[in-house]
Amino acid sequence: MLKVLIIDDEKAARDLLVHYFQTYFPKVKDIQTTDGIFKAIPIIEQHQPDVIFLDIQMPTASGMDLFNLLKDKKPSVIITTAFENYAIKAIKHDVHDYLLKPIDIQEFISSVNKILSSKDAPTTSGTAKNSTKRIALHGQKEINYVEENTIKYIISDRAYSTVYIEDNKSYVVTKSLGKFEEILDKNIFYRIHRSYIVNLKKIAKIVKKDGGLVHMEDDKTFKIASQKRNILISKMN
């Protein structure tokens, strides 16, 4: 099962994440916490966590300093901060996710589910990795199978999602965006907003005004969540 380390100089922030795990992932028992980067190093050496929740602005050292100290150890890192201006630096360090405080519960759940999914995923051969993946779209009356790379974007509507693919086809499915995040290729698809996942290869342009807008190749327009904008631009470069 997942081994977790939470690094944050605020006890309330550490306790909140522990509470989230206890509430939504009760099977995760191995949770270590600390209030500083240098205190974290021996914990990482001894416990070898699978994922680190990392605050950025702390009194003794910046959270970014941790990446220089990890050396060959490569746990997944989820940034937790009140500041969005570290997003591009975080992307360069290949962080798993970037959660803005106050942390949205659904984003927390989705992020942890992606970690669990990748941890449990079987190793594939080079041949399988290069093949085109097919996605099963479960509707109320039928299951449709589509090539992953034909998906343009997915729009959430509470318990349902509408998947839009090429040739102006769409499918209403009984699967949340969080579940799609787990199965779709994260190098191609990105959740730009609580309600939208888009195919990065089908973005025509990004408009920075009005908080940020994405224009797709088919002229569909989506709003970008403020904490996602810099990450999206970095992914497109």
Count of discrete alpha- or pi-helical segments spanning 4 or more residues: 8
Beta strand %: 25-35%
Mean pLDDT: 85
CATH topology of the largest domain, which one? Rossmann fold
Coarse morphology: globular
How many structural domains can be distinguished in the coordinates? Answer: 2
The first-level CATH class of the largest domain is given as: Alpha Beta
Low-confidence stretches: 122-131
* Topology order in helix (H) and strand (E) letters: EHEHEHEHEHHEEEEEHEEEEEH
Helix content: 25-40%
Number of strands: 15
Which structural class should the secondary elements be placed in? alpha/beta
Radius of gyration based on Cα positions: 19 Å
The major β-sheet equals: 5 strands, parallel
Report strand order across the widest sheet: 2-1-3-4-5
Distance N terminus to C terminus? 35 Å
Please tell me about this protein's structure:
The protein has two domains: 3-120, Response regulator (Rossmann fold); 133-236, LytTr DNA-binding domain (OB fold (Dihydrolipoamide Acetyltransferase, E2P), Beta Barrel), CATH 2.40.50.1020. It has eight helices and 15 strands. The strands form four sheets. Strands 2-1-3-4-5 form a five-stranded parallel β-sheet, with helices on both faces. It has a five-stranded antiparallel β-sheet with strand order 10-9-8-12-11, with no helix packed on it. Helix 5 runs parallel beside helix 7. With 237 residues, the protein is α/β, with parallel strands linked by helices. The longest helix is centred in the middle third of the chain and has 16 residues, at 105-120. Helix 4 links the parallel strand 4 (76-81) and strand 5. It starts with a strand and ends with a helix. 31% of the residues lie in helices and 31% in strands. The model is unreliable at 122-131 (pLDDT under 50).
